[in-house]
């Protein structure tokens, strides 16, 4: 048994314990109670990443409404949510994809990405509950 660094779990950190039974390795995310198996350490952790993302898919979308409205007005559609991220896609002659963290507050980096794609100013995307984190 040994502890692992958490598998790409957004901005949150989890304790991962990997054990073996002689045939399989089993990885468990202690805080979430999610487990997966694999024939190798790498395979086990890859499967655990997938299991954690599936577990987190049920979390509600909390991305600020002003951000969603700006993207929608610019022709983007929310096409997928996996774990703690949402994928927006714009179709047409200049297709584009943007992946944002599903958080109530976005880091300035993500606000700047949305502004570059929508033509909005950072001030338009901020407001009560829609600030940025430095």
Automatic annotation (TrEMBL):
Descriptive protein name: Type II toxin-antitoxin system HicB family antitoxin
Organism: Desulforudis audaxviator (strain MP104C)
